[in-house]
What we know:
By secondary structure, the chain is mostly helical. It has helices at 4-7, 22-34, 61-71, 94-107, 134-148, 172-178, 184-198, 204-220, 228-240, 244-263, 281-298, and strands at 44-49, 54-59, 111-115, 124-128, 153-155, 161-163. The mean pLDDT is 94. Keywords: Plasmid.
Amino acid sequence: MELYSERNGKRDLKQHTYCINENTYSLLLSCCTKYKKNLTKIFQLPCHNSFVDEDYIKFNEKLFSQRINSKIPSLFRNESGAIAAPKSGDNYDQYALLDLIEFFGKNIKDVREAWNNENYRNYKNIYIYDSSKVFNEFKNSINELFSEAGLLYELNDEKIIERLVDDDVLTPEIETSFESLTDKTLHDLLESAIDFYRTPNNSARQESLEKLWGALERLKTYYESLNKKESVQKIVKNMAHEDEDFYKMFNDEFKLLTDIGNNYNIRHHETYQKDLPDKNYYDYLFNRCLSLIALSVKYLLK
């Protein structure tokens, strides 16, 4: 929902971030709480109304709290032990909140809550359905909060939260091009690298580079009848279209990225290898290496 100042360029651009502050945490948690009863299928509390002698179903708050405590133990709780939003100065794990959102996304079902009798209203029963049409409503609500806060996350149709990157090189077209690879190991390394790249947790950045550099080394041996050096030369030659300048550029890029992988803690972790000096380099190196691989794949001879 765009407001007047947003539509007419009267508002400062929202700074993009991966950090969930206390205010946004509270809004996201409230959004989840709104859909609690949609989890009744897995958190049922059988009840009985003795006055009308009828059974009915309520949401089992205690079972929900116990299950979340077991499933997401680092989720913030207040002094009373209840799931709550942190206050200023509290320590909290923002990724545990993202886990909670995914848990809701994967488990919410369509429900209907109604009085047993509109005249007497003895109790409310929750009717549970097997459908999950409500997920789209939940997804849109969560993603709207992400967007309003400038958070670079998105809950996708597979009910997984993905990390977004400004000016991202990775496109659906690039992912589709990898599907045509006949080398299953190369395909699986690229798929794994992309999955780690999209994972919100910062620790996955290292894993994404490790898998991608593994894919680069695998790509360099694509032509099995040739040794690695000759295989790279054939790949570069096909990419360059006999243009000497582009041949040199692509060849230098293969060598440079190989050197980075050997000199830094990317693929290996020897004592002589260095750590990347800045966490912002992870996305830069991922996109640079991915660009070279994606272009190379276009010119591989089947």
